[in-house]
Design a protein that fits this description.
- The structure is a single chain.
- Strands 7, 8, 9, 10, 11, 12, 13, 14, 15, 16 and 17 form an 11-stranded mixed sheet that branches. Strands 1, 2, 3, 4, 5 and 6 form a 6-stranded mixed sheet that branches.
- The protein is α+β, with helices and mostly antiparallel strands and about 450 residues long.
- The chain starts with a helix and ends with a helix.
- It has 2 domains: about 100 residues, Roll (Ubiquitin-like (UB roll)), CATH 3.10.20.70; about 325 residues, Creatine Kinase, Chain A, domain 2 (2-Layer Sandwich).
- The longest helix is centred in the C-terminal third of the chain and has 28 residues.
- Strand 8 and strand 9 form a beta hairpin.
């Protein structure tokens, strides 16, 4: 395969290669090398200093090695010129040639191997939502007189708004297709300036790679169109935030292991067990699926984001939804979990989702009865009578839940858990100690 890729680089007139990987927060990191050095990188890897990368090595053990995954080779369309640029996603290794335990991509690979040992392939299909904001001539995001950031339009769900945002989204789709991502649909979302891109269901590792690539594409194309793309879960108060609903299923021997023709919801026993495992561990998973302070501004009743731990088919206020079965579409049987948001690292997110689901299968857990009513309309007594709990209210609550859950903590491993907790505690403390405009308005003169 190496010879094929090198030959393709010559045909594509590739002069430089971006070797990309992810830090623990899901930020894309990159080292660019000339094509003449790529064969050496394939043979011996490429050394880099990991001590300054979030969640990577300590200063006295900083040497890390990148090993390219050739299956991720793709030309970067907007970087064409005298010499074109390609990108390859890499795995991170230690100096002794072992996979680096805190590499998010390896964290996912470990859980996928566990699933493989149980006879399963884990497939995911995330729905990526984001906002586009106006930029001024100075390149800064435009704000109104009251300092509110300005979405690029006033569109609503599925509106056809023929403006720079529409053109940007069309170019994002074209670029994604050119980079090997099979985009199935794009549309305007519920809130002004909010959009969604969906791509074809695939195995979880490929899917996580595609999320990272698509976020990279969206940001780059938005910038070229004079816009700013944001994956912040709740950038504007009072309107819907951005989620990353994840459709998920297990396959065995090429067939959907979640499908059962005789069941009311067309779900098999392993599907119910998988669902139960995720419901049991979702509070701890929130630290990964909803990883920033702002995530919890989205997780409030009334704006479609799931806040209550229950499941259903028609009820979109439920945490986990079972999309309706269509005759002859057995392979599409799946579970949709609705609390993840696009600030999550997809490698870590898919890893904890899979681990919790597999544990449900191992323990043969049973989920509670479905709740088809609108849970947002329940009062406290109604929630208690149905034993419906809520997701954590804050980042710090979710971090505490993570540390109480040995299973989800084990996915990260001791080193990554320690570094992740330290970074998130620092983030929470900075937020907790800051004084907001709201506090100034409410207390400065009246207290």
């Amino acid at each position: 395969m190496a010879d094929e890729i090198i030959s393709k680089m010559k045909l594509d007139n590739i002069k430089f290669v971006n070797l990309q990987f992810s830090d623990m927060m899901g930020t894309v990191k990159s080292i660019t090398i000339p094509t003449s050095k790529f064969a050496d990188a394939l043979e011996t890897g490429l050394w880099f200093d990991g001590s300054s990368i979030e969640g990577f090595a300590r200063i006295f053990e900083s040497d890390m090695m990148l090993r390219p995954d050739l299956s991720t080779y793709s030309q970067i369309p907007w970087m064409n010129g005298d010499g074109n640029v390609a990108r390859v996603i890499c795995d991170v290794y230690t100096p002794d040639g072992k996979p680096y335990e805190s590499d998010p991509r390896y964290v996912l690979k470990k859980v996928l191997e566990e699933a493989k040992q149980m006879g399963y392939v884990f497939n995911t299909g995330p729905e990526l939502e984001f906002f586009l904001f106006k930029r001024g001539e100075d390149g800064q995001i435009k704000t109104s007189a009251d300092r509110q950031i300005l979405p690029h339009d006033r569109g609503q769900y599925f509106d056809l708004v023929l403006d720079a945002g529409f053109e940007a989204r069309r170019e994002m789709m074209a670029t994604a297709l050119a980079m090997g991502i099979d985009v199935e649909a794009s549309h305007h979302e519920v809130a002004p300036g909010q959009h969604e891109l969906d791509f074809k269901y695939s195995d979880a590792l490929s899917s996580a790679d595609k999320v990272m690539t698509l976020k990279y594409i969206i940001r780059a194309i938005a910038q070229r169109k004079g816009l700013h793309a944001s994956f912040m879960p709740k950038p504007i108060a009072g309107i819907n935030g951005s989620g990353m609903h994840v459709h998920q299923s297990l396959f065995r021997g090429g067939k959907n292991a979640f499908f059962d023709a005789d069941d009311k919801y067309k779900l098999s026993p392993p599907a119910y067990q998988f669902l139960a495992g995720q419901m049991k561990h979702v509070k701890a998973m929130s630290a990964i699926l909803n990883p920033i302070v702002n995530s919890y501004k989205r997780l409030v009743p009334g704006y479609e984001a799931a806040t209550y731990i229950c499941w259903a088919q028609k009820n979109r206020s439920a945490l986990i939804r079972v999309p309706k079965y269509s005759q002859g579409k057995e392979q599409a049987t799946r579970l949709e979990i609705r609390n993840p948001d696009p600030s999550a690292n997809p490698y870590l997110a898919f890893a904890v989702l899979l681990k919790a689901g597999l544990e449900g299968i191992k323990q043969k857990l049973e989920p509670p009865s479905p709740v088809e009513e609108n849970v947002f309309e329940f009062d406290e007594a109604g929630l208690e009578s149905r034993h419906i709990e809520t997701l954590p209210y804050s980042l710090m609550d979710s971090i505490k839940a993570l540390h109480k859950d040995a299973l989800i903590s084990s996915v990260l491993g001791d080193e990554l858990l320690r570094k992740y907790t330290r970074a998130k505690t620092k983030e929470w403390d900075e937020f907790r100690l800051s004084v907001s405009d709201w506090e100034i308005r409410h207390y400065l003169e009246d207290v």
